[in-house]
Amino acid sequence: MLSPTAVFSGFSVSDMEKTKEFYGTTLGFKVESDPKGLHIELPGGGQVFVYQKDNHEPASFTILNIVVANIDSAVDELLKLGVTFERYENMPQDERGIARGLAANMGPDIAWFKDPAGNILAILQDAK
Question: Which domains occur in the chain, in start order?
Answer without folding.
Answer: 9-54 (3.30.720.120), 61-128 (3.10.180.10)
